[in-house]
């Protein structure tokens, strides 16, 4: 009798089924169970955050949109007394901004845009300069870093009162320029006062984020650039700025979102109902304080949409990704090409 042996992996198992055929469904089921378990764990871990966002963000947004569809309380024509309920006006509060009543809204809108563009632009330049200074190795660097970050640590209310004293009629600002300027009244000088105070306070924020990006750049890159003959300016444009771009774009994005909802600094420094410095947040607060909750909610919703569109456009058009990936919507992804070593010729191999 010939003893026939089945090679491993090619024959059938003792039950008569082909080898490996019965284990595939088991592996697939285990993989599906592991995926479902990880999905349930992820949902369980994310649920507290989603609950907080729902309570803090989603619910107030829905209520603000609902409130914006109602008008202010007026006289009831039937009783002659003030009505207890707000009348439903639909989109009338939004349509009013395109009429004569919308002049104040558009003034606040352009003030908000002007403050955002100017302050963020100046803060970016000063913040990058601060980061470069804090990144250099010199004696007393810890003291310089602490002094640069002090304005960011000061509360905005304290900062507004401090700059109000500086821009007083007999304050330090007029003493330095040798000219009497009423900074806290109506006019372009009020805008300048707000811009100076805002830039002084928030430039260290951009500097801090850019400094974090500078510290992850390897020193070998700069050493190689110096060996190639690159000067300080060339190193900044060719090495520092491209490598620190993700951190810089994230800092600029955060500052844009913060500046668009500016309220406390111009409110404390200049005052309420000043046309030269009134922002959308100040306008919405003033309407709500005068018991006009419908228009106030409409202005708040429009500000929310404005901030959302700016953030979306910033991320999509400028490619401000939070992980610093190369490419994105702003441009094609770079492909890394590997140079293949040519195969040796037959004669060389024989030799």
- How far apart the termini lie comes to 55 Å
Q: Approximately what portion of the residues adopt beta-strand conformation?
A: under 5%
Q: Whole-number average pLDDT?
A: 80
Give the CA-based shape: flat
Query: Unreliable runs, pLDDT <50, ≥5 residues?
Result: 9-17, 320-351
Q: Radius of gyration from the CA trace?
A: 32 Å
Query: How many strands in all?
Result: 0
Q: How many H/I helical runs?
A: 13
Helix content, binned percent: 55-70%
- The sequence of SSEs as H and E is HHHHHHHHHHHHH
Largest sheet, in brief, is: none
Question: Structural class, judged by helices and strands?
Answer: mainly alpha
For the structure shown, list the relevant keywords.
351 residues; mainly alpha; 13 helices; 0% strand
Descriptive notes:
The protein is mainly α and 351 residues long. 64% of the residues lie in helices and 0% in strands. The chain is built from 13 helices and no strands. Helix 3 packs antiparallel against helix 9 (232-260), helix 4 (141-153) crosses helix 7 (188-214) and helix 9 runs antiparallel to helix 12 (293-318). The longest helix has 45 residues, at 23-67. The protein is flat, with a radius of gyration of 32 Å.
Question: What is shown here, in short?
Answer:
The chain is mainly alpha-helical and 351 residues long. It has 13 helices and no strands.
């Amino acid at each position: 009798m010939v003893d026939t042996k089945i090679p491993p992996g090619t024959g059938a198992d003792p039950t008569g089924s082909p080898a490996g055929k019965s284990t595939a469904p088991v592996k697939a089921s285990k993989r599906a169970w592991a995926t479902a378990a990880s999905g349930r764990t992820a949902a369980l871990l994310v649920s507290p955050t989603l609950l907080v966002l729902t309570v803090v963000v989603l619910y107030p947004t829905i209520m603000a949109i609902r409130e914006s569809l109602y008008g202010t309380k007026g006289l009831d024509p039937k009783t002659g007394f003030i009505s207890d309920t707000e009348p439903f006006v639909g989109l009338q509060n939004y349509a009013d901004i395109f009429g004569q009543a919308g002049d104040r809204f558009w003034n606040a809108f352009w003030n908000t845009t002007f403050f955002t563009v100017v302050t963020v632009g100046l803060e970016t330049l000063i913040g990058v300069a601060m980061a470069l200074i804090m990144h250099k190795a010199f004696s007393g660097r810890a003291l310089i870093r602490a002094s640069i970050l002090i304005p960011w640590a000061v509360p905005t209310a304290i900062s507004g009162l401090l700059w109000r004293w500086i821009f007083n009629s007999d304050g330090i600002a007029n003493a330095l320029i040798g000219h009497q300027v009423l900074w806290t009244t109506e006019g372009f000088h009020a805008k300048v006062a707000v811009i100076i105070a805002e830039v002084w306070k928030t430039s260290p924020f951009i500097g801090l984020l850019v400094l974090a990006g500078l510290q992850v750049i390897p020193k070998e890159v700069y050493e190689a650039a110096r060996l190639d003959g690159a000067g300080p300016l060339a190193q900044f444009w060719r090495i520092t700025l491209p490598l620190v771009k993700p951190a810089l774009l994230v800092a600029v994005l955060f500052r844009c979102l913060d500046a668009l909802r500016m309220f406390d600094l111009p409110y404390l420094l200049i005052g309420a109902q000043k046309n030269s410095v009134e922002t959308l947040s100040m306008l919405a607060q003033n309407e709500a304080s005068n018991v006009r909750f419908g228009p106030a909610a409409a202005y708040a919703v429009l500000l929310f949409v404005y901030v959302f569109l700016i953030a979306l456009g910033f991320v999509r058009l400028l490619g401000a990704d939070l992980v610093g990936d190369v490419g994105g919507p702003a441009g094609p992804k770079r492909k890394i090409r590997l140079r293949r070593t040519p195969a040796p010729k037959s004669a060389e191999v024989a030799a």
